[in-house]
Amino acid sequence: MINRRTLTKTLGMALAATATTGVAGADDEDSRRRRYLVRGGAVVTADPALGVLPRADVLIDDGAIAGVGRDLDASGAKVVDATDMIVLPGFVNTHLHMWSALGRNFVADGFPYFAAKRATSTLYDAEDVYRSVLLGLAELANAGVTTVHNWSNNTRSPAHADAELRAHRDGLLRARFSYGHVDQMSRDVPMDFTDVDRVRQQYFSAGSAFDGLVHLGVAVRGLSQSAEPAFFADMDAAVRRGLPIAIHAGQAPPRIVEAADYERRGWLGPRTLLTHYVTALDGDMEVMARTGTPLSWSPHSEFRLGSAGDPRDALLRFRRAGVTVSLSSDATSIAPSDMFEAMRLVWNTGIPWQGTPSAGLPEVGFREVLRMATLDGARALGLGDVTGSITVGKRADVVLVRTNDINLAPGGLVETTLVQAANPANVDTVFSDGRIVKRGGRLVAYDVDRIVRDARASSLRIRTSAGGILTPPS
């Protein structure tokens, strides 16, 4: 008789050995890597040396960007006509709790995010999280996001971890999978890293998994969800393993992260990602900038859940200090996985506020917020040499946005258009690592009907099990 741990190990080994093939029903012709010439678009490269090219071609070959410029010679390439389109690097979402994507509508008036999470997080089985992560990945691809940080903060068992990784295998997007704790575990109990080691050995022994698209990290609870001895033990275990670390740094008083103390302990640097941190003092921000510690900023979440002060003020002070700021969604029950909307919110709120330390600081501009959503997001995940800009040699994570749609017409400055007006419905084509996953406004690499049907089934089961306000109508 095979016990659960043996079965999970066998499943993990099988998944690690399986090539990225996409989802049943995918269009194999479109989702193969091949040689493409994206011709004649307005190219927002996010590359500081190239900037915006009013009209240019992008050559994609074997999953990489092989050329950027006018009238490229690309014999043998399949032409993708980008006339009247904006070409840009795929967005990078640096903080998303993907296990709960199917719970996006569990919240209600008088029943906010944390109440809904407490009522449901223990009810997700392994198949539920597979369906949830795959739903989230398809939604991201539809919206032009090609890289995501899956902040897996409800990894309830080895089978749950395997299920999330199976979804990443099928989801075809670039990702960091940050193995986290079991939601609602005791504050006094450290994380058990036994299965982190198992996952690392079975999936990531070569450094990355699934054709190089996915790398491993650890999401620790931080002092908002664990007692100090348990948090210190979690950090020591993660640091010993040399894995990238992600920490919730606090949106509400009291201030739970003192950056100078974290620096003394050797916890800060480019491989540590802090999110939220609305409570940060100017000194904390200076330490982050000096140590190269990036920030993930979830604008909707900072406003909805933050009670430590005005997020506008905090964001402008992070910029003044020189901290690398990336953008994220947090959870789909707080904000959609829509980087257009995140950019628009940051742009509209990124203004100095009289009577605060931000008074007199420069406002956030269109080009800057686009960089936060692309290149700075890649840098925050340690992928700045891989993705985040349309640069020769980087992987081909490329998005085409139609400008003739009614909400974008009559066109104009392309960076303004992307931030001020565009939304996922305007995304025509998405390349992920040189594969087309969306074409002509339609997801071609996913069986969308099946993904939605399965997500509905899991959501209904969880809502029914939770009872109370979540009980579905008869």
TrEMBL record:
Entry annotated with the keyword Signal: yes
Transmembrane regions: none
Keywords: Signal
Pfam families for this protein: Amidohydro_1 (PF01979)
Region forming the signal peptide: 1-26
InterPro entries, alphabetized: Amidohydro-rel (IPR006680), Metal-dep_hydrolase_composite (IPR011059), Metal_Hydrolase (IPR032466), MTA/SAH_deaminase (IPR050287)
Gene Ontology molecular function, alphabetical: hydrolase activity, acting on carbon-nitrogen (but not peptide) bonds
UniProt keyword annotation of Hydrolase present: no
Ranges of residues in domain Amidohydrolase-related: 86-437
Domain of life: Bacteria
This protein's name: Cytosine/adenosine deaminase
The organism of origin for this protein: Lentzea jiangxiensis
Lineage: Bacteria, Bacillati, Actinomycetota, Actinomycetes, Pseudonocardiales
